[in-house]
Amino acid sequence: MTRGGRSLLILILVILAGIIVPFMIWGDRFDSAFTLEGARAWMEGHGQLAWAAGILLLVADIALPVPSTVVMSALGWMYGWWLGGLIAAAGSMLSGIVAYTACRWLGRGVARWLAGEEGLRKAEEIFEKRGGWLVALSRWMPVLPEAIACLAGLSKMRRRVFLPALACGSLPTGFIFAAIGHLGQDSPGWAIVLSCLLPVALWLAAGRFLRR
């Protein structure tokens, strides 16, 4: 492994540690508090701003172990698959944008200290070539959405690529899990398959459009 590769690996491990450690400390507490019924009750406690409370929970997943797919399902249960899906997708996109923007403008100095110029250049190369795929496919996975969005910001991934890729991952994930909540189901296998395959199809189409 090259020096730049080792430096980039250190940066990735630090970002993952910042996300995983809160899960280790508070994960069980959040899982027990934010069951499907618990998430709905918490959001309904904010009255007409319940939708905004749901978006806030999804954005808080950047730093806290919020079970985001459960929150999306609760939004579908409350608002139906269409409106609930829009709210869930908006929350997922806003979460990615906040992580990307914060790391792009505030995290470069720390990243340079951890990984050095070589590590940052390596990250920039990766996100220039494969960033769209990484962002789109990460949105349905645990832990990775926040980490990939942070790395995209640190590597100054182009916004005109990041934002469409973020939408390609967030829209199917938001609507699929909202549909689960609307139908009153747990997380069935078809949801996992669709939330994996649809971002691929959407990014293939978006990638062709961007190249044009």
Secondary structure layout plus pairing:
Layout: H1 3-33, H2 36-44, H3 50-60, H4 68-106, H5 108-138, H6 144-154, H7 159-183, H8 189-211
Helix pairs in contact: 1-5, 1-6, 2-3, 2-4, 3-4, 4-6, 4-7, 5-6, 5-7, 5-8, 7-8
β-strand amount: under 5%
The dominant shape is globular
Domain tally: 1
Mean pLDDT, rounded to whole units? 85
Please give the share of residues in helix: over 70%
User: Quaternary arrangement of the chains shown?
Assistant: single chain
Rounded radius of gyration (Å): 17 Å
- Number of helical runs? 8
User: First CA to last CA: what distance?
Assistant: 36 Å
Largest sheet features: none
> Structural class, from secondary structure content?
mainly alpha
Low-confidence stretches: none
- What is the β-strand count? 0
**Helix-strand sequence:** HHHHHHHH
Describe this structure in words.
By secondary structure, the chain is mostly helical. It has one domain (3-211). The protein is built from 8 helices and no strands. Helix 4 runs antiparallel to helix 7 (159-183). The N and C termini lie far apart (36 Å).
Task: List its traits.
mainly alpha; 8 helices; about 85% helix; about 210 residues
Q: Brief overview, please?
A:
By secondary structure, this protein is mainly alpha-helical.
